[in-house]
Amino acid sequence: MMWKDWYWKKSEFMITLPFLQKNHTGFLCPGFRIFLVGLLCLGLLNVPGLVLAGAPEMTEDRAFALAEEFGVDVGEVDEEIRKILGLLKAEGVVVFAVIGNTAADLAGIKSKSIIKEVDGMEIHTILDLGKALEKALPTQNFSVATYEPADIDDQGIGGGLNFHLVRIQKE
């Protein structure tokens, strides 16, 4: 199927909408474009293949800063952490510490947990966590799925997957 790209440029902000067919003869009035941009910025409209030019690239430093804003000190699961926690593979993001009286603390997230998902987005790396938190934190209400390995004292009991509802408190 042939696709047509529509561009709208304002300053350095460009949106590519590849979902309009090539033979589309309609045109987007300015009011509808503003409405579409609002939905995109709020995360209420998800368009596969969407390119937001001008959006900052996610870096590890930014991902760690967003995690700290959320209230967790995190790192990627490496081979050493995999052995300590008894995980099958070295993948994901581990919570080293939870900062008191933050959204993460109030949601019940615990240290030694592996963050598996944030608001429906799977987490495999620290960059995945940064991208998910960047999208979820402004909403002020989102979910976090964590895997909590069993303690040494819990003989015969495996770890469990927990879902935490996060609510950012307004000051």
UniProtKB/TrEMBL annotation:
Name of the protein: PDZ domain-containing protein
UniProt-listed SUPFAM superfamilies: PDZ domain-like (SSF50156)
Domain of life: Bacteria
InterPro entries found in the cross-reference section: PDZ_sf
